[in-house]
What does this fold into?
Amino acid sequence: MPDDLAIRIEDLSIKYKINVDTKRTLKNALMRASKGERVRMRTVEAVKHLTLDVPHGSVLGIVGANGAGKSTLMRSIAGILPPTEGRIIVNGKISTLLALGVGFNPALSGRDNIILGGLASGMSRAEIEAKTDEIAAFADLPDGFIDMPVRTYSSGMYGRVAFSVAVNMTPDILLLDEALSAGDASFKEKSFTRMRELCNEARTIVIVSHALATISELCDTAIWMHKGTMLAKGKPEEIVDQYLKFLDVGTLPSNFEDM
Amino acid sequence: MAAKDSSATPGFAPRIQVFEPHRASLPPLIPYFKEFWRRRVFASELAKFTDKAEYLDSKLGKVWLVLNPLLLAMVYYLLVTVLKGGKQHNGITTLAHILIGLFTFYFAQTCITSGAQSITSGGRLILNQAFPRALLPFSSSISAFQQFLPTIPVYIFVIVVGKFFYPSTQVPGFTWAFIWVPLVVALVGITGFGLSLLFATMNVYFRDTNKILQYFMRIWLYLSPILWQPEMFHGWHRAVIYLNPLGPTLSATSHIWINGQAPTLAEILGMFGWAFASIVFGGYFFISRERDFAVRI
It folds into this structure.
Protein backbone atom coordinates (compact mmCIF):
# COMPACT_ATOMS: atom_id res chain seq x y z
CA MET A 1 0.00 0.00 0.00
CA PRO A 2 1.32 3.49 -0.84
CA ASP A 3 2.78 5.36 2.12
CA ASP A 4 0.51 8.35 1.79
CA LEU A 5 -2.66 6.31 2.36
CA ALA A 6 -4.24 6.04 5.77
CA ILE A 7 -7.03 3.67 4.76
CA ARG A 8 -7.32 1.47 1.70
CA ILE A 9 -10.55 -0.40 1.12
CA GLU A 10 -10.48 -3.03 -1.61
CA ASP A 11 -13.72 -4.45 -2.95
CA LEU A 12 -15.25 -4.60 0.49
CA SER A 13 -18.47 -6.47 1.12
CA ILE A 14 -20.01 -7.00 4.50
CA LYS A 15 -22.86 -9.33 5.23
CA TYR A 16 -24.25 -10.42 8.52
CA LYS A 17 -27.20 -12.38 9.72
CA ILE A 18 -29.78 -11.02 12.07
CA ASN A 19 -32.45 -12.90 13.90
CA VAL A 20 -35.80 -11.31 13.16
CA ASP A 21 -37.66 -12.99 16.01
CA THR A 22 -39.02 -10.54 18.49
CA LYS A 23 -38.05 -12.68 21.44
CA ARG A 24 -34.56 -14.02 21.23
CA THR A 25 -34.84 -16.53 24.01
CA LEU A 26 -33.91 -20.13 24.47
CA LYS A 27 -37.49 -20.87 25.42
CA ASN A 28 -38.71 -19.36 22.17
CA ALA A 29 -36.11 -21.25 20.15
CA LEU A 30 -37.09 -24.55 21.76
CA MET A 31 -40.79 -23.88 21.14
CA ARG A 32 -40.02 -23.18 17.52
CA ALA A 33 -37.88 -26.27 17.19
CA SER A 34 -40.63 -28.41 18.72
CA LYS A 35 -43.05 -27.10 16.09
CA GLY A 36 -40.47 -27.83 13.43
CA GLU A 37 -40.11 -24.18 12.51
CA ARG A 38 -36.78 -22.72 11.70
CA VAL A 39 -35.38 -19.62 13.29
CA ARG A 40 -36.21 -16.67 11.07
CA MET A 41 -32.93 -15.20 9.97
CA ARG A 42 -32.26 -12.42 7.56
CA THR A 43 -29.00 -11.70 5.84
CA VAL A 44 -28.15 -8.05 5.68
CA GLU A 45 -25.84 -6.97 2.90
CA ALA A 46 -24.70 -3.79 4.53
CA VAL A 47 -21.80 -2.94 2.24
CA LYS A 48 -21.47 -4.11 -1.37
CA HIS A 49 -18.19 -4.07 -3.31
CA LEU A 50 -16.86 -0.80 -2.05
CA THR A 51 -13.41 0.41 -3.05
CA LEU A 52 -11.97 3.55 -1.53
CA ASP A 53 -8.63 5.17 -0.68
CA VAL A 54 -8.29 7.72 2.08
CA PRO A 55 -4.99 9.65 2.13
CA HIS A 56 -3.29 10.78 5.32
CA GLY A 57 -4.32 14.19 6.58
CA SER A 58 -7.68 14.22 4.85
CA VAL A 59 -11.17 14.49 6.21
CA LEU A 60 -13.70 12.21 4.60
CA GLY A 61 -17.40 12.72 5.09
CA ILE A 62 -19.97 10.01 4.53
CA VAL A 63 -23.58 10.90 3.82
CA GLY A 64 -26.53 8.65 3.11
CA ALA A 65 -29.98 7.70 4.28
CA ASN A 66 -30.56 5.38 7.22
CA GLY A 67 -29.55 1.85 6.41
CA ALA A 68 -27.06 2.91 3.75
CA GLY A 69 -24.28 0.97 5.47
CA LYS A 70 -22.39 3.97 6.83
CA SER A 71 -22.03 2.69 10.38
CA THR A 72 -21.16 -0.80 9.21
CA LEU A 73 -18.44 0.64 7.03
CA MET A 74 -17.06 2.59 9.99
CA ARG A 75 -17.11 -0.49 12.17
CA SER A 76 -15.24 -2.51 9.64
CA ILE A 77 -12.57 0.20 9.29
CA ALA A 78 -12.22 0.10 13.07
CA GLY A 79 -11.72 -3.68 12.94
CA ILE A 80 -14.87 -4.36 14.92
CA LEU A 81 -16.67 -6.07 12.06
CA PRO A 82 -14.32 -8.03 9.80
CA PRO A 83 -15.14 -8.09 6.06
CA THR A 84 -17.10 -10.87 4.41
CA GLU A 85 -15.21 -10.24 1.19
CA GLY A 86 -12.44 -7.87 0.23
CA ARG A 87 -9.83 -6.26 2.36
CA ILE A 88 -9.23 -3.20 4.50
CA ILE A 89 -5.73 -1.93 5.20
CA VAL A 90 -5.36 0.66 7.90
CA ASN A 91 -2.12 2.48 8.51
CA GLY A 92 -2.06 4.03 11.96
CA LYS A 93 -3.64 4.01 15.36
CA ILE A 94 -7.41 4.26 15.27
CA SER A 95 -9.58 6.08 17.72
CA THR A 96 -13.32 5.63 17.44
CA LEU A 97 -16.50 7.23 18.54
CA LEU A 98 -19.08 4.99 16.93
CA ALA A 99 -21.66 4.39 19.60
CA LEU A 100 -22.13 7.37 21.80
CA GLY A 101 -20.75 7.07 25.28
CA VAL A 102 -17.49 5.83 26.68
CA GLY A 103 -19.83 3.13 27.76
CA PHE A 104 -18.65 1.12 30.68
CA ASN A 105 -20.18 1.33 34.03
CA PRO A 106 -22.68 4.07 34.82
CA ALA A 107 -21.89 3.66 38.50
CA LEU A 108 -18.27 4.68 37.94
CA SER A 109 -17.03 8.23 37.64
CA GLY A 110 -16.23 9.88 34.32
CA ARG A 111 -12.55 9.70 35.19
CA ASP A 112 -12.66 5.94 35.86
CA ASN A 113 -14.52 5.44 32.60
CA ILE A 114 -11.86 7.39 30.71
CA ILE A 115 -9.15 5.15 32.17
CA LEU A 116 -11.05 1.99 31.23
CA GLY A 117 -11.63 3.32 27.72
CA GLY A 118 -7.93 3.95 27.26
CA LEU A 119 -6.99 0.50 28.53
CA ALA A 120 -9.49 -1.14 26.20
CA SER A 121 -7.98 0.70 23.26
CA GLY A 122 -4.62 -0.82 24.15
CA MET A 123 -2.92 1.95 26.10
CA SER A 124 -0.95 1.21 29.23
CA ARG A 125 -2.17 2.40 32.60
CA ALA A 126 0.59 5.05 32.79
CA GLU A 127 -0.16 6.36 29.29
CA ILE A 128 -3.85 6.80 29.90
CA GLU A 129 -3.36 8.30 33.34
CA ALA A 130 -1.04 10.90 31.86
CA LYS A 131 -3.82 11.82 29.43
CA THR A 132 -6.75 11.77 31.82
CA ASP A 133 -6.39 15.36 32.99
CA GLU A 134 -6.12 16.63 29.44
CA ILE A 135 -9.25 14.70 28.47
CA ALA A 136 -11.13 15.92 31.52
CA ALA A 137 -10.07 19.51 30.83
CA PHE A 138 -11.21 19.29 27.22
CA ALA A 139 -14.59 17.85 28.18
CA ASP A 140 -14.87 20.81 30.56
CA LEU A 141 -17.75 19.48 32.61
CA PRO A 142 -19.38 21.73 35.23
CA ASP A 143 -17.71 21.68 38.63
CA GLY A 144 -16.69 18.28 39.87
CA PHE A 145 -18.87 16.22 37.54
CA ILE A 146 -15.88 14.38 36.13
CA ASP A 147 -15.46 12.59 39.49
CA MET A 148 -19.14 11.80 39.85
CA PRO A 149 -20.86 8.65 38.59
CA VAL A 150 -21.64 8.76 34.88
CA ARG A 151 -25.31 8.00 35.60
CA THR A 152 -25.64 11.55 36.98
CA TYR A 153 -24.57 13.07 33.65
CA SER A 154 -26.86 14.77 31.18
CA SER A 155 -26.70 13.39 27.66
CA GLY A 156 -24.74 16.44 26.57
CA MET A 157 -22.13 15.87 29.26
CA TYR A 158 -21.95 12.21 28.31
CA GLY A 159 -21.31 13.16 24.71
CA ARG A 160 -18.65 15.67 25.70
CA VAL A 161 -16.65 13.09 27.64
CA ALA A 162 -16.96 10.52 24.87
CA PHE A 163 -15.84 12.99 22.22
CA SER A 164 -13.02 14.26 24.38
CA VAL A 165 -11.70 10.71 24.85
CA ALA A 166 -11.83 10.01 21.12
CA VAL A 167 -9.99 13.14 19.98
CA ASN A 168 -7.40 13.21 22.74
CA MET A 169 -6.05 9.72 22.27
CA THR A 170 -3.66 11.15 19.65
CA PRO A 171 -5.14 8.94 16.96
CA ASP A 172 -3.69 8.70 13.47
CA ILE A 173 -7.17 7.93 12.24
CA LEU A 174 -10.27 9.22 13.94
CA LEU A 175 -13.64 7.64 13.15
CA LEU A 176 -16.67 9.65 14.21
CA ASP A 177 -20.23 8.40 13.76
CA GLU A 178 -22.80 11.09 14.53
CA ALA A 179 -20.56 12.22 17.32
CA LEU A 180 -20.94 15.94 16.89
CA SER A 181 -24.61 16.21 17.68
CA ALA A 182 -24.18 15.95 21.43
CA GLY A 183 -22.52 19.12 22.59
CA ASP A 184 -23.84 22.67 22.67
CA ALA A 185 -22.72 25.39 20.26
CA SER A 186 -19.59 26.35 22.14
CA PHE A 187 -18.47 22.74 22.52
CA LYS A 188 -19.12 22.15 18.84
CA GLU A 189 -16.87 25.07 17.98
CA LYS A 190 -14.19 23.63 20.24
CA SER A 191 -14.58 20.20 18.62
CA PHE A 192 -14.18 21.69 15.16
CA THR A 193 -11.02 23.51 16.21
CA ARG A 194 -9.60 20.33 17.68
CA MET A 195 -10.41 18.35 14.55
CA ARG A 196 -8.70 20.95 12.36
CA GLU A 197 -5.65 20.68 14.60
CA LEU A 198 -5.65 16.94 14.08
CA CYS A 199 -5.79 17.45 10.32
CA ASN A 200 -2.90 19.86 10.41
CA GLU A 201 -0.91 17.18 12.17
CA ALA A 202 -1.50 14.93 9.15
CA ARG A 203 -4.06 12.83 10.96
CA THR A 204 -7.02 11.43 9.14
CA ILE A 205 -10.67 11.81 10.05
CA VAL A 206 -13.73 9.98 8.77
CA ILE A 207 -17.08 11.49 9.71
CA VAL A 208 -20.56 10.09 9.34
CA SER A 209 -23.16 12.77 9.85
CA HIS A 210 -26.67 13.75 8.97
CA ALA A 211 -25.71 17.35 9.74
CA LEU A 212 -24.82 18.17 6.16
CA ALA A 213 -23.47 21.59 7.06
CA THR A 214 -20.85 19.85 9.18
CA ILE A 215 -19.82 17.69 6.26
CA SER A 216 -19.49 20.72 3.95
CA GLU A 217 -17.57 22.68 6.53
CA LEU A 218 -15.10 20.10 7.78
CA CYS A 219 -14.46 17.63 5.02
CA ASP A 220 -12.30 17.85 1.95
CA THR A 221 -13.87 14.80 0.31
CA ALA A 222 -17.27 13.24 0.71
CA ILE A 223 -18.92 10.05 -0.42
CA TRP A 224 -22.58 9.27 -0.73
CA MET A 225 -23.66 5.79 0.21
CA HIS A 226 -26.95 4.26 -0.78
CA LYS A 227 -28.06 0.74 0.15
CA GLY A 228 -24.52 -0.47 0.65
CA THR A 229 -22.94 0.95 -2.47
CA MET A 230 -20.98 4.12 -3.00
CA LEU A 231 -23.00 6.27 -5.40
CA ALA A 232 -20.71 9.24 -5.66
CA LYS A 233 -17.44 10.61 -4.45
CA GLY A 234 -16.25 14.18 -4.75
CA LYS A 235 -16.18 17.64 -3.28
CA PRO A 236 -18.36 17.81 -0.16
CA GLU A 237 -20.56 20.67 -1.47
CA GLU A 238 -21.36 18.78 -4.66
CA ILE A 239 -22.05 15.51 -2.88
CA VAL A 240 -24.26 17.23 -0.33
CA ASP A 241 -26.13 18.99 -3.15
CA GLN A 242 -26.73 15.75 -4.99
CA TYR A 243 -27.81 14.04 -1.80
CA LEU A 244 -30.19 16.87 -0.90
CA LYS A 245 -31.76 16.72 -4.37
CA PHE A 246 -32.24 13.02 -3.92
CA LEU A 247 -33.90 13.58 -0.56
CA ASP A 248 -36.19 16.18 -2.13
CA VAL A 249 -37.20 14.20 -5.17
CA GLY A 250 -36.88 10.73 -3.73
CA THR A 251 -35.39 9.23 -6.87
CA LEU A 252 -31.80 8.66 -7.76
CA PRO A 253 -30.26 11.04 -10.31
CA SER A 254 -30.48 9.46 -13.74
CA ASN A 255 -26.74 9.13 -14.16
CA PHE A 256 -26.61 6.86 -11.09
CA GLU A 257 -29.30 4.50 -12.21
CA ASP A 258 -26.96 1.99 -13.68
CA MET A 259 -24.90 1.71 -10.50
CA MET B 1 3.32 11.76 8.31
CA ALA B 2 5.64 14.41 9.74
CA ALA B 3 3.75 14.85 12.92
CA LYS B 4 4.05 11.36 14.36
CA ASP B 5 4.61 12.22 17.99
CA SER B 6 5.86 10.00 20.76
CA SER B 7 2.48 8.34 21.01
CA ALA B 8 3.72 5.62 18.67
CA THR B 9 4.97 3.72 21.69
CA PRO B 10 5.19 -0.06 21.69
CA GLY B 11 2.03 -0.12 23.79
CA PHE B 12 -0.12 0.63 20.77
CA ALA B 13 -1.61 -1.57 18.14
CA PRO B 14 0.60 -2.38 15.15
CA ARG B 15 1.00 0.46 12.68
CA ILE B 16 -0.45 -1.34 9.71
CA GLN B 17 -3.48 -3.48 10.28
CA VAL B 18 -5.11 -5.59 7.63
CA PHE B 19 -8.68 -6.74 8.07
CA GLU B 20 -9.66 -9.67 5.91
CA PRO B 21 -12.45 -12.22 5.90
CA HIS B 22 -12.06 -14.81 8.63
CA ARG B 23 -11.17 -18.30 7.59
CA ALA B 24 -13.60 -20.88 8.94
CA SER B 25 -15.11 -18.00 10.94
CA LEU B 26 -12.03 -17.83 13.15
CA PRO B 27 -9.90 -14.68 13.32
CA PRO B 28 -6.13 -15.18 12.90
CA LEU B 29 -5.39 -16.83 16.24
CA ILE B 30 -1.82 -15.82 16.96
CA PRO B 31 -2.51 -12.05 16.72
CA TYR B 32 -5.70 -12.68 18.70
CA PHE B 33 -3.86 -14.25 21.61
CA LYS B 34 -1.08 -11.67 21.40
CA GLU B 35 -3.61 -8.85 21.68
CA PHE B 36 -5.39 -10.71 24.46
CA TRP B 37 -2.15 -10.98 26.41
CA ARG B 38 -1.15 -7.39 25.69
CA ARG B 39 -4.41 -6.04 27.03
CA ARG B 40 -4.59 -8.28 30.11
CA VAL B 41 -4.17 -5.14 32.26
CA PHE B 42 -7.48 -3.94 30.86
CA ALA B 43 -9.16 -7.14 32.10
CA SER B 44 -7.71 -6.87 35.58
CA GLU B 45 -8.47 -3.15 35.84
CA LEU B 46 -12.00 -3.74 34.57
CA ALA B 47 -12.42 -6.35 37.32
CA LYS B 48 -11.14 -3.89 39.90
CA PHE B 49 -13.38 -1.08 38.68
CA THR B 50 -16.44 -3.29 38.43
CA ASP B 51 -15.96 -4.49 41.99
CA LYS B 52 -15.46 -0.89 43.04
CA ALA B 53 -18.71 0.13 41.40
CA GLU B 54 -20.56 -2.78 42.94
CA TYR B 55 -19.47 -2.08 46.48
CA LEU B 56 -19.11 1.65 46.23
CA ASP B 57 -21.99 2.39 48.53
CA SER B 58 -21.59 -0.19 51.23
CA LYS B 59 -18.51 -1.14 53.17
CA LEU B 60 -20.42 -4.23 54.27
CA GLY B 61 -20.81 -5.14 50.60
CA LYS B 62 -17.56 -7.03 50.39
CA VAL B 63 -18.25 -8.80 53.68
CA TRP B 64 -21.37 -10.28 52.11
CA LEU B 65 -19.22 -12.02 49.56
CA VAL B 66 -17.85 -14.21 52.34
CA LEU B 67 -20.87 -14.13 54.59
CA ASN B 68 -23.23 -15.36 51.91
CA PRO B 69 -21.57 -18.74 51.22
CA LEU B 70 -20.79 -19.07 54.92
CA LEU B 71 -24.44 -18.74 55.94
CA LEU B 72 -25.51 -20.95 53.08
CA ALA B 73 -23.03 -23.58 54.23
CA MET B 74 -24.57 -23.42 57.72
CA VAL B 75 -28.03 -23.95 56.27
CA TYR B 76 -26.87 -26.92 54.20
CA TYR B 77 -25.03 -28.31 57.22
CA LEU B 78 -28.19 -28.17 59.34
CA LEU B 79 -30.12 -29.77 56.51
CA VAL B 80 -27.62 -32.58 56.10
CA THR B 81 -27.45 -33.21 59.86
CA VAL B 82 -31.22 -33.29 60.18
CA LEU B 83 -31.54 -35.64 57.21
CA LYS B 84 -28.94 -37.94 58.69
CA GLY B 85 -30.92 -37.93 61.93
CA GLY B 86 -29.18 -35.95 64.59
CA LYS B 87 -25.71 -35.48 65.87
CA GLN B 88 -22.59 -36.13 63.87
CA HIS B 89 -19.77 -37.87 65.66
CA ASN B 90 -16.94 -36.23 63.80
CA GLY B 91 -17.28 -32.73 65.22
CA ILE B 92 -17.64 -30.24 62.41
CA THR B 93 -15.89 -32.33 59.74
CA THR B 94 -19.06 -32.45 57.66
CA LEU B 95 -19.39 -28.69 57.91
CA ALA B 96 -15.75 -28.31 56.86
CA HIS B 97 -16.38 -30.49 53.81
CA ILE B 98 -19.46 -28.49 52.83
CA LEU B 99 -17.67 -25.18 53.42
CA ILE B 100 -14.58 -25.80 51.32
CA GLY B 101 -16.66 -27.42 48.59
CA LEU B 102 -19.12 -24.56 48.52
CA PHE B 103 -16.39 -21.91 48.46
CA THR B 104 -14.70 -23.68 45.56
CA PHE B 105 -17.99 -24.20 43.72
CA TYR B 106 -18.86 -20.53 44.23
CA PHE B 107 -15.60 -19.54 42.61
CA ALA B 108 -16.51 -21.45 39.46
CA GLN B 109 -20.12 -20.28 39.66
CA THR B 110 -19.12 -16.61 39.85
CA CYS B 111 -16.79 -17.06 36.87
CA ILE B 112 -19.64 -18.57 34.89
CA THR B 113 -22.62 -16.42 35.86
CA SER B 114 -20.89 -13.04 35.77
CA GLY B 115 -18.87 -14.02 32.71
CA ALA B 116 -22.07 -15.05 30.95
CA GLN B 117 -23.40 -11.50 31.27
CA SER B 118 -20.16 -9.77 30.39
CA ILE B 119 -20.75 -9.61 26.63
CA THR B 120 -24.38 -8.52 26.66
CA SER B 121 -23.69 -5.90 29.31
CA GLY B 122 -20.54 -4.69 27.57
CA GLY B 123 -22.64 -3.28 24.73
CA ARG B 124 -21.18 0.16 24.17
CA LEU B 125 -17.65 -1.07 24.59
CA ILE B 126 -18.16 -3.78 22.01
CA LEU B 127 -19.79 -1.42 19.54
CA ASN B 128 -17.05 1.15 19.93
CA GLN B 129 -13.76 -0.65 20.05
CA ALA B 130 -11.97 -3.57 18.53
CA PHE B 131 -10.32 -5.84 21.07
CA PRO B 132 -10.36 -9.56 21.79
CA ARG B 133 -13.82 -9.97 23.30
CA ALA B 134 -12.67 -12.85 25.47
CA LEU B 135 -11.14 -10.18 27.70
CA LEU B 136 -14.58 -9.38 29.09
CA PRO B 137 -15.37 -12.86 30.49
CA PHE B 138 -11.72 -13.09 31.50
CA SER B 139 -12.19 -9.98 33.57
CA SER B 140 -15.18 -11.63 35.29
CA SER B 141 -13.01 -14.63 36.12
CA ILE B 142 -10.35 -12.40 37.64
CA SER B 143 -13.02 -10.75 39.72
CA ALA B 144 -14.34 -14.16 40.80
CA PHE B 145 -10.85 -15.18 41.86
CA GLN B 146 -10.44 -12.03 43.92
CA GLN B 147 -13.70 -12.78 45.64
CA PHE B 148 -12.65 -16.39 46.25
CA LEU B 149 -9.31 -15.60 47.90
CA PRO B 150 -10.62 -14.22 51.22
CA THR B 151 -12.82 -17.30 51.72
CA ILE B 152 -9.72 -19.43 52.35
CA PRO B 153 -8.67 -17.64 55.58
CA VAL B 154 -12.33 -17.67 56.62
CA TYR B 155 -12.40 -21.44 56.12
CA ILE B 156 -9.21 -21.89 58.16
CA PHE B 157 -10.59 -19.69 60.93
CA VAL B 158 -13.85 -21.66 61.13
CA ILE B 159 -11.99 -24.97 61.25
CA VAL B 160 -9.52 -23.85 63.92
CA VAL B 161 -12.34 -22.52 66.11
CA GLY B 162 -14.37 -25.68 65.40
CA LYS B 163 -11.47 -27.91 66.39
CA PHE B 164 -11.19 -26.00 69.64
CA PHE B 165 -14.83 -26.64 70.58
CA TYR B 166 -15.17 -30.10 68.98
CA PRO B 167 -11.86 -31.94 69.36
CA SER B 168 -13.14 -34.85 67.29
CA THR B 169 -13.11 -32.62 64.17
CA GLN B 170 -10.81 -34.01 61.52
CA VAL B 171 -8.03 -31.52 60.80
CA PRO B 172 -5.15 -32.53 58.52
CA GLY B 173 -2.49 -30.26 60.04
CA PHE B 174 0.34 -29.17 57.80
CA THR B 175 1.03 -31.71 55.10
CA TRP B 176 2.66 -31.67 51.70
CA ALA B 177 -0.77 -32.20 50.20
CA PHE B 178 -1.38 -28.45 50.44
CA ILE B 179 1.09 -27.72 47.67
CA TRP B 180 -1.65 -29.01 45.34
CA VAL B 181 -3.97 -26.18 46.34
CA PRO B 182 -2.73 -23.52 43.86
CA LEU B 183 -2.94 -25.99 40.97
CA VAL B 184 -6.44 -27.11 41.90
CA VAL B 185 -7.60 -23.50 42.26
CA ALA B 186 -6.06 -22.61 38.90
CA LEU B 187 -7.84 -25.53 37.25
CA VAL B 188 -11.17 -24.47 38.78
CA GLY B 189 -10.54 -20.99 37.37
CA ILE B 190 -9.70 -22.31 33.90
CA THR B 191 -12.74 -24.60 33.86
CA GLY B 192 -14.94 -21.71 35.02
CA PHE B 193 -13.50 -19.31 32.45
CA GLY B 194 -13.90 -21.85 29.65
CA LEU B 195 -17.53 -22.48 30.53
CA SER B 196 -18.18 -18.76 30.93
CA LEU B 197 -17.07 -18.29 27.30
CA LEU B 198 -19.66 -20.85 26.27
CA PHE B 199 -22.50 -19.26 28.25
CA ALA B 200 -21.50 -15.69 27.36
CA THR B 201 -21.88 -16.63 23.68
CA MET B 202 -25.19 -18.37 24.29
CA ASN B 203 -26.42 -15.32 26.13
CA VAL B 204 -25.84 -13.17 23.06
CA TYR B 205 -28.13 -15.42 21.01
CA PHE B 206 -30.62 -16.31 23.72
CA ARG B 207 -31.14 -13.61 26.26
CA ASP B 208 -32.77 -15.92 28.78
CA THR B 209 -29.65 -18.04 29.14
CA ASN B 210 -28.82 -16.19 32.30
CA LYS B 211 -32.10 -17.04 33.96
CA ILE B 212 -31.84 -20.68 33.01
CA LEU B 213 -28.25 -20.67 34.19
CA GLN B 214 -29.35 -19.96 37.76
CA TYR B 215 -31.36 -23.20 37.92
CA PHE B 216 -28.68 -25.05 36.08
CA MET B 217 -26.08 -23.97 38.63
CA ARG B 218 -28.35 -24.99 41.51
CA ILE B 219 -28.84 -28.48 40.09
CA TRP B 220 -25.14 -28.71 39.35
CA LEU B 221 -24.40 -27.84 42.98
CA TYR B 222 -26.57 -30.74 44.20
CA LEU B 223 -24.93 -33.12 41.73
CA SER B 224 -21.48 -32.16 42.97
CA PRO B 225 -19.72 -33.83 45.90
CA ILE B 226 -20.38 -30.95 48.26
CA LEU B 227 -23.47 -31.87 50.25
CA TRP B 228 -22.45 -35.53 49.98
CA GLN B 229 -19.10 -37.26 50.25
CA PRO B 230 -17.32 -38.48 47.12
CA GLU B 231 -16.75 -41.78 48.98
CA MET B 232 -20.49 -42.45 48.85
CA PHE B 233 -20.04 -43.81 45.34
CA HIS B 234 -18.13 -46.98 44.57
CA GLY B 235 -17.11 -48.79 41.43
CA TRP B 236 -18.63 -47.54 38.23
CA HIS B 237 -21.00 -45.30 40.16
CA ARG B 238 -18.02 -43.01 40.61
CA ALA B 239 -18.64 -41.90 37.04
CA VAL B 240 -21.12 -39.47 38.62
CA ILE B 241 -18.10 -37.58 39.88
CA TYR B 242 -16.04 -37.70 36.72
CA LEU B 243 -18.88 -36.74 34.37
CA ASN B 244 -19.18 -33.50 36.31
CA PRO B 245 -16.77 -30.79 35.12
CA LEU B 246 -16.13 -29.78 38.72
CA GLY B 247 -16.44 -33.31 40.20
CA PRO B 248 -12.75 -34.28 40.20
CA THR B 249 -11.72 -30.84 41.47
CA LEU B 250 -14.23 -30.83 44.31
CA SER B 251 -13.33 -34.36 45.25
CA ALA B 252 -9.62 -33.45 45.26
CA THR B 253 -10.33 -30.28 47.23
CA SER B 254 -12.08 -32.25 49.94
CA HIS B 255 -9.27 -34.80 50.09
CA ILE B 256 -6.64 -32.11 50.46
CA TRP B 257 -8.40 -29.90 52.98
CA ILE B 258 -10.11 -32.55 55.12
CA ASN B 259 -7.90 -35.62 54.91
CA GLY B 260 -4.61 -33.96 54.04
CA GLN B 261 -4.24 -36.35 51.10
CA ALA B 262 -2.79 -35.49 47.71
CA PRO B 263 -5.24 -35.88 44.79
CA THR B 264 -5.43 -39.33 43.24
CA LEU B 265 -4.19 -39.89 39.69
CA ALA B 266 -7.79 -40.22 38.49
CA GLU B 267 -8.64 -36.89 40.08
CA ILE B 268 -5.63 -35.18 38.53
CA LEU B 269 -6.46 -36.54 35.09
CA GLY B 270 -10.10 -35.58 35.54
CA MET B 271 -9.24 -32.03 36.61
CA PHE B 272 -6.87 -31.45 33.72
CA GLY B 273 -9.23 -33.11 31.27
CA TRP B 274 -12.19 -30.94 32.18
CA ALA B 275 -10.12 -27.73 32.32
CA PHE B 276 -8.68 -28.47 28.88
CA ALA B 277 -12.04 -29.49 27.41
CA SER B 278 -13.80 -26.38 28.78
CA ILE B 279 -11.21 -23.90 27.59
CA VAL B 280 -10.86 -25.43 24.13
CA PHE B 281 -14.56 -25.99 23.49
CA GLY B 282 -15.69 -22.75 25.15
CA GLY B 283 -12.89 -20.81 23.49
CA TYR B 284 -13.73 -22.14 20.03
CA PHE B 285 -17.44 -21.53 20.50
CA PHE B 286 -16.76 -17.97 21.64
CA ILE B 287 -14.03 -16.88 19.24
CA SER B 288 -15.73 -18.33 16.18
CA ARG B 289 -18.84 -16.27 16.93
CA GLU B 290 -17.14 -13.12 18.09
CA ARG B 291 -17.75 -11.27 14.85
CA ASP B 292 -21.47 -11.60 15.41
CA PHE B 293 -21.40 -9.84 18.77
CA ALA B 294 -21.16 -6.35 17.27
CA VAL B 295 -24.31 -6.84 15.20
CA ARG B 296 -26.35 -8.75 17.75
CA ILE B 297 -26.02 -6.65 20.84
Summary: Chain B touches chain A through 54 residues (CB under 8 Å).
